[in-house]
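Hi support team,

I'm filing this because I wasn't sure whether my run with flavin-adenine dinucleotide finished correctly. The job status page said complete, but I'd like someone to confirm that the output block is well-formed before I use it downstream. Pasting the exact inputs I used:
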Amino acid sequence: MSTIYWLRNDLRLHDNECLHRAVERDKPLTLVYVFDVRQFEMMNIGFRKTGYIRYKFLCDTLQNLRENLAKRGAKLLIRVGKPEEVLADLIDRTKADLLLFQEEVTSEELAVEKAVTAAAEKKKCEVRPVWGLTMYHVDDAPFDPKETPLTSKAFRINLSKKAEVRPLFVTPEDIPAPPESLTDFGDMPTAEELGFTEEEIDSNTEPAYPGGETYALERLDYYTTESQLLTNYKWTRNRSLGDDFSSKFSPYMALGSLSPRKIYWQVKDYEKAIKKNISTWWLVFEVVWRDFFKYTAIRFGNKIFAEGGIKNRETDWSYDKDLFDRWRFGKTGIPFIDAHIRQLNATGFMSNRGRVNCASFLTRDYKIDWRWGAAWFETQLIDYDVCSNWLNWNTQALEIYYTNPVHQGGNKYDKNGEYVKAWLPELAEVPAPLVHAPWMMTETEKKQYPTGDYPEPVEVYKKWSRASNLIRRTVDG
Ligand SMILES: Cc1cc2nc3c(=O)[nH]c(=O)nc-3n(C[C@H](O)[C@H](O)[C@H](O)COP(=O)(O)OP(=O)(O)OC[C@H]3O[C@@H](n4cnc5c(N)ncnc54)[C@H](O)[C@@H]3O)c2cc1C
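And here is everything the job wrote out:
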């Protein structure tokens, strides 16, 4: 008899219920991660489902997990293929009688779970899915998740009044070794093996943050007790430039290197030991948003990917490939949009302010189907989380009001142009805030501040006039 723990988006040792159950059982333990080849395929839309930066971040995360497991006597097996096939073979080879995994809530992931479960049950291996995706455990919700409240406010109030965040599972000191029948633990697959082209590999891109639980926990300590940046979170969180204006916990939570419960309890300790204020409340509030989207996905199923979104809105999208390419390569001629997209493409990360503006611009100005934008974010974001991504896109495209990128950049969040200049070297000479509306430059200014091959916008919309006039007045004193 032996246990298999199939790792998915739960790549950590701390606060990990699957690992806890496996260790408690005290039988030879196979810990396996499967690179699911379907997640790396090219899509009809012309790009890969998981992009090269995400692949790199995942490899770094797994490498770190491998090292941390080795320190505790365990080994991580790496395989490439379809989880249902890999696991069926492993059950035979290890004579496993129990398979543990963290359950997910969205269709592709559920389809794999179903196939894995069928394969395991055929071999008389018990399958035990374990909940671990959220801060508030799904069994503690005071409502049926299929009837999750429609607004985040009702969700939060209901939960926080009636449910408590559970205590953490302790990080195990010793982890059972794998069965002796296993000898080949596999290498991390190369990019070529997963189908990446030379062009993709040579794209000169690097994940913004180092992957893995070690760095996740370091970042958590840094952002809270060490630097106490948390105390000012509420007032800095909407910025775009630098590493410290927001927590940067999302890449770690997306792959499960950081548990949302761990964040919660660290904030509670911070409130006792250092300071409790609106910022500490706000950070937890944001992590509850993340929970809200997981629960909403349970309620709405595949509607979260539907053209009209979860509320079946009437829509009339454009499918202009040229406009879409301008957007996804940061060539719209709108600096606040282009800078954010170029940062995303080079590092796999973009601030929340950037995401709001880029999503709004693509869907409300270019009027392109929001699902194309969500798919591009899925490919590129190192913090890609199926529920947070697709439901935030739902919100931006179909629910809330328009966001004006000229106003947001030039008059609000980047008045001194530092952020856009960091990502758009063509605009280095243009003074701020004019750098947010280069089309407003006079002929003399154009000669004075050359912009190289930075593109002209396809259209300068009338609705931006007030914002660009304000920029002009600021420049003219
Ligand atoms: C169009 C769009 C797409 C997005 N796609 C993703 C995605 O794929 N993965 C992802 O984790 N977040 C996504 N977000 C939410 C948000 O932008 C990121 O969570 C945040 O920018 C991550 O940076 P941070 O960890 O420094 O955030 P902080 O401001 O420090 O927030 C702390 C944590 O709260 C959670 N959080 C904050 N804002 C949101 C939000 N709007 N929705 C859900 N959770 C939130 C995240 O887990 C985040 O790590 C998206 C937002 C938009 C508008």
